[in-house]
Each structure stands twice: as C-alpha cells, then as structure tokens.
Specification:
globular; 388 residues; eight-stranded mixed beta sheet; Spore Coat Polysaccharide Biosynthesis Protein SpsA, Chain A; alpha/beta
Length: 388
C-alpha cells in the first residue's frame, strides 16, 4: 500500500487537472491511497474537490485551524491518516510519470532498510515560456542532474525536494516527520535522516511541474527556500559537536559546504560581482588593503568558481534533455543576482517573520511536456543510478 500526500492551499483552479494527473499513475487502485490535504478556511479548493467523480482511492482531508499554517504542518496532520507503508509527496501542479510508483516500490524492495528515502527528478513542462523559465530550467537541471547525484554518490546528506519524494513510513515516523515551523521542511528532513544513519537515493523517474516564470513571484519563492536553508543550518548547528559525531567529518563538512556555502555565496554576491569588474582591469576598494598577489588570488578564485558553475549548468542541461539551448547559459549571469536579492530578502524575512510561508501561485500554464524533454529525461537515469 502506497500513500501519497498532496498539500493544497488556494489551488481551486488546478484541482481538476491534479485529479486527472494522479489518475494516470500505474499502480493497483486497491494499493493506492491518495490524500488531498486542504486547509479548513480554503473553501474554494474544498468546493473544487467536492465532485461526484472523485475516485474512491482519493480522499479529501481537512486540516483543522491553527496558529501555524504551513505545508509541513498539514503533512504531519495527514500522516496519521495514511494507510500505506510507503508515503510519498506531490505538489499541486505536478505531472509525474505514470510508472513512477512502480519504480519506487521496486527500489525500496531491492534496497536495505537503511535506504529510507527516494527522491525523484523534477523538470519543467514550460521551460521555454520566457527567459526566466529558461534560466530556472538550467538551475533545476544542474541541481537534479549533477548536484544531487553527486551528493548521493559521495554519501553526503541529501537535501530533499518538496515533491516526488518517498519514505518508508516507519522511518519517517521514527525521525519525527516534518518540522512544521521550517519553510524548507524537505531539506531539513533530509539532514535529519542522515543524522540518524539513513540514506537517500535518487530514482530514474521524472515529475514535470510548472516553472515560476514571473520575477516577483520567483524572488518570493526563492527567498522562502533560502530562508529555510538559513533556518535549517541554524537549527542543526545548535549542537555542532553532536552534528559532527552523527554525520562524521565528511558529512559535517559537506553540510557546511552545501548550506552555509550556498547562503554565503548568495549573500556575498555583490562582492563576487565586484571582483569580476576588477578582473576586467577596473579598480577595487580591496586593492587598497590587500597585496597584489592577494587581490589576484581573490579575483582568480571568483573567476574559477564562475567557470565551475558554468560547467555544472551546461552538464546538467545536456543530461536533462530539456529543450533549452546552451545559449541560455550566458543569461545565468543575470539570473544569479536575482537569487542574491532573494537571499537578502530571505534573511530579512527570517528576522521579521521566520515562519511565514510565501505561497507560490500555480496553474498559470498548461502542462505540455516537450518530446525532447521526456526523451532526455528517460535517457538520463544513468546519471542517478547508484552502484554498490
């Protein structure tokens, strides 16, 4: 029995589409338990799901009102109503490949209990809407095709995505499920699984979702993710010695590089960009206090880091098979400062309203997966397959 949780809030516009997509999942209906989790005050979404043709293997679960209103709180409430020994998560706009659950069950059956979580691959069904969606596609491709497989193979903590992630239920309950106060609850849960000695592996199955392709909503969404990264780092670093013992030296350093490195890189983006200018021969204020070799080392490091990022983006895009040309890569120089702006907004939001959840609007585009993207996604599993 597999339970799938879909947390919905103000999603009345795509509720019918969601039901159709979930209906394409190829798994015996008497072994499929889908919970559509809605908030008590979201009458529009509840009305959209109140339909006579809703399959009997789908249930609408209403979360009672509370002072906190976050996705992880809704998932924690719904977990007690699940019937399955495997629990999966989808988002409202997701379009998973039909055989995804079959692959998940087969992988869990073949792997030891220490493999407690499986993370699927995310791609976009609207990658060519505009320049922002193209850049977002490159970003996702680098993350799911290069970064996450690399973390998996190196045995480092894997920050989970908020969707297309499946758990052994008993382990999920053992580690305390989701942190209802964390706005990037998926990344936090991935670290907690690693701290308890469990592993996350990637599966060669793709879920298509909608790329946020409007600047202001994109910044709000990314700032929430980065705020959650800051929160996750601070929570787990409350006892650094214990974290070191549980993750081991390599895992501890990997945690710092991923979370603290991501945050620092974006918050220090203005300094990095200024080094670019210095590399072109312009003056730089740090040249007044650093020796020539020190300034050269700083500029060289920034340029090398940018070259590595460019390589990773290009490699991820090639592996993903998404219909976005390599000509998009130069646009990432503009995309990066947007992420830096989101990081500073996330830091400000963490100080003012740490548990506020910036809702992402969905359903702005019709899902039309491009043939090239689907073909590329099926050709990519070798990038995720773990050996040993």
């Amino acid at each position: 029995m597999v339970s799938v949780l879909v947390a919905l809030y103000r999603e009345s516009g795509i509720a019918a589409r969601l039901v159709r997509r979930l209906g394409r999942l190829d798994w015996p209906r008497d072994r499929l338990d889908i919970l559509l989790v809605v908030e008590d005050d979201d009458r529009a979404t509840r009305a959209a799901l109140d339909r006579p043709d809703l399959p009997d293997w789908m249930r609408v679960l209403v979360v009672p009102p509370g002072t906190l209103k976050t996705k992880p709180r809704a998932l924690n409430y719904a977990l007690d109503f699940c019937r399955g020994s495997i629990v999966g998560i989808y988002d409202a706009e997701d379009a998973p490949e039909p055989d995804q659950i079959r692959k998940v069950v087969a992988r869990f059956h073949a792997r030891p209990r220490a493999v407690a979580c499986l993370q699927g691959v995310l791609a976009f069904y609207n990658p060519r809407t505009n320049r922002l969606s193209r850049c977002f596609t490159v970003d996702y491709a680098a993350w799911f095709q290069v970064m996450l497989p690399g973390l998996d193979r190196m045995g480092l903590p894997v920050p989970l995505g908020g969707t297309t992630v499946f758990f052994r239920r008993e382990v999920l309950e053992e580690v305390g499920a989701w942190d209802a106060h964390n706005v990037t609850e998926d990344a936090d849960l991935g670290v907690r699984l690693a701290r308890r000695g469990y592993r996350t592996e990637l599966i060669d199955s793709v879920t298509f979702e909608e790329a946020n392709c409007h600047v202001i909503p994109w910044i709000r969404q990314r700032s929430r993710w980065l705020k959650g990264y800051m929160m996750t780092w601070a929570v787990h670093m409350r006892a650094p010695v214990l974290l070191w013992r549980q993750l081991g030296p390599r895992g501890f350093l990997g945690f710092q590089a991923l979370f603290l490195g991501t945050i620092a890189q974006l918050l220090l983006a203005p300094l990095i960009l200024s080094c670019w200018v210095a590399g072109l021969g312009a003056g730089h204020p740090l040249a007044l206090v650093l020796p020539a070799w020190g300034m050269g080392l700083l500029v060289g490091t920034c340029l090398l880091a940018e070259a590595v990022t460019l390589f990773v983006n290009g490699l991820g895009l090639r592996r993903s098979g998404q219909p976005v040309g390599m000509g998009t890569l130069p646009l990432m120089h503009v995309y990066g400062p947007l992420a830096a702006l989101a990081a500073w907004r996330g830091l400000w939001d963490l100080a003012r309203r740490p548990f506020h959840w910036d809702k992402t609007a969905h359903g702005l585009h019709q899902p039309r997966p491009a043939p090239a993207a689907r073909a590329g996604a099926r050709a990519a599993p070798s990038a995720f397959r773990r050996t040993g």
